[in-house]
# Entry
Amino acid sequence: MKLSHQLLHQIHRHLESGYPNEACGVMLGKNGVITEIVSVDNQRTALPALGGESARNRYLIPPLAYRDIELDADKRGLLVMGFYHSHPDVPARPSKFDLDNATWPGLSYIIVSVCKGKAVETNSWLLREDRSGFDQETVEISE
# Structure
């Protein structure tokens, strides 16, 4: 996967602005190149019955918002290339929850560790075809 330094900077700024909560968005492009991002408001609300899940440790892109993003991308000849989200104050690697809720094999899942409001680590992951786990993906950053 390839993306520009400018787009990575935009991802970092968006995720930092969401701190201390998780923030999220969708990456668009084609031919393995991310050409734009769509920031999405994290719609996760507190779910005490589910062990205290909240926007602090989970994110939710509403299905209708995702549909609108995908339809707009399609009209412009772009594809959804993947998703990005932050992990506040924890490493930039997929959690069990991330694996259990990832739905699209072959798409990129960028995770950024945001510690004390600052992006400190960025990794990208590909969901395996059998959905058994993620494999780390090389990201080529262009100017």
User: Anything to note?
Assistant: The domain at 2-41+59-142 is CATH 3.40.140.10 (Cytidine Deaminase; domain 2).
